[in-house]
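This section describes the prediction task in plain terms. A model, or a person checking by hand, is given the sequence of a single protein chain and must write out its three-dimensional structure as a string of tokens. No templates, partner chains or ligands are provided. The sample shown here is typical of the held-out split.
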Amino acid sequence: MNRRRNRIMAAAAVMISLILTACVWRTETVSAKMEQTQRHMAEEVLRFHVLANSDSTRDQKLKMKVKDAVVSWMEEQMDTESLDQTKAFIRSHLSEIEAVSRETLKEEGASYPVRASLEWTAFPEKTYGDITFPAGTYEALRIQIGKAQGHNWWCVLYPSLCFIDSVHAVVPDRGKKQLENVLTDDEYEMVTAASKFKVKWFFFGS
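The expected answer:
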């Protein structure tokens, strides 16, 4: 009886060990795929980042005013069809973007300094509608208002993934199609997962 119990316990221990090993391997595989996808996405997109002076109600409202004004200005002025063109436009119009931001603040009775730049910066994981960008370093147009110590606002300039419906968080189909064209099928399937369950199923159910 004891021998049988020992054999059962030994078999169970081996099974548990195999399951744990498989889980670790799969976790490492998921992590590696996520990192690879993030690096590829970083080569194909340009993000937009507006940092508020502080978390006060007024400063947060000013942040959104600046965002709205800059987005409206770019919709009128920027006519680009590629990532390189979009970056080139931003680089050559940073002073105008700062001017639009300062004028918006002035109209609201604020006199914070504003700095616009095109630079690489770390982003947490962020979901735009049904598209999730993995955490990592991306190049972005950054508008820093005042001390830039408040909660910030994110969007994607290229491909255009800024919400066209801020209430329901719907991103433009054209931008999604552009993103699909530059990613592999597996990468696009991962980042357009409707929920973390779908991402998990994509890696563990295949």
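For orientation: DSSP finds seven helices and six strands in the chain.
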